[in-house]
Design a protein that fits this description.
Number of helices of chain A: 0
Radius of gyration of chain B: 14 Å
Number of helices of chain B: 0
Order of helices and strands of chain A: EEEEEEEEEEE
Strand content of chain A: over 45%
Shape of chain A: globular
Structural class of chain A: mainly beta
Structural class of chain B: mainly beta
Oligomer: heterodimer
Strand content of chain B: over 45%
Order of helices and strands of chain B: EEEEEEEEEEE
Shape of chain B: globular
Distance between the termini of chain B: 36 Å
Chain lengths: 116, 115
């Protein structure tokens, strides 16, 4: 089926604004991940969902960042009071299962967030 | 924080040559994976090697893992211009907790293959 999709592909916002980034995982994948990639760096883990619950949110940088996955499929990453340092590509990935299993994570194309 | 450290940071080779990229990591791992990224966007999974494996092949790719040295190498044979991309190693931590799923990436290697 279709791969992981993310919308929007690009988002430009002003400092202090609120943004929502959406991720549609591969159908049937129960695990969903958010990563953030700054210019010239590798992706950094933000949060991992198993089903509807956040199993690990240790990578969220502060309380301005929040993510939900209410029905265990689509996820939304929410950033309040955006700062210029939040500018990055936000990547979403999904896998068949999570936990200590060897399931491949499939990545979406990312959302490039620019905070002016 | 980033666990993997790839080297070299950039590599430029002629089409047809082999490309070797190295990755070192710090903690014990469950598995190590290599990803390719074009134009700073979507990551494509290339190959996964488990901690109890030493070598794995997939098409023109060969991956080795040395857990005693905490290092891995990715060899691309007979490179093509289309192999031009950034390559990342990523590790999955060795843990038995249910929350162990996050990949830790290195900073990446930029590979340029000249036609």
């Amino acid at each position: 089926g279709a791969g992981v999709s993310q919308t929007p592909s690009n988002k430009v916002t002003e400092k202090g604004k609120y943004v929502e980034l959406r991720c549609d995982p591969i159908s049937g994948h129960t695990a969903l991940y958010w990563y953030r990639q700054s210019l010239g760096q590798g992706p950094e883990f933000l949060i991992y969902f198993q089903g509807t619950g956040a199993a690990d949110d240790s990578g969220l940088p502060n309380d301005r960042f929040f993510a939900v996955r209410p029905e265990g499929s689509v996820s939304t990453l929410k950033i309040q009071r955006t700062e210029r340092g939040d500018s990055a590509v936000y990547l979403c990935a999904s896998s068949l299962r999570g936990g200590p299993y060897l399931y491949t994570q499939y990545f979406g194309p990312g959302t490039r967030l620019t905070v002016l | 924080s980033q666990q993997g450290e790839e080297d070299p940071q950039a590599l430029s080779i002629q089409e047809g040559e082999n490309a070797t990229m190295n990755c070192s990591y710090k903690t014990s791992i469950n598995n190590l994976q290599w990803y390719r990224q074009n134009s700073g966007r979507g990551l494509v999974h290339l190959i996964l090697i488990r901690s109890n494996e030493r070598e794995k092949h997939s098409g023109r790719l060969r991956v080795t893992l040395d857990t005693s040295k905490k290092s891995s190498s990715l060899l691309i044979t007979a490179s093509r211009a289309a192999d031009t991309a950034s390559y990342f190693c990523a590790t999955l931590k060795d843990s038995y907790t249910g929350a162990n799923s996050k990949l830790t990436f290195g900073k990446g290697i930029t590979l340029s293959v000249r036609p």
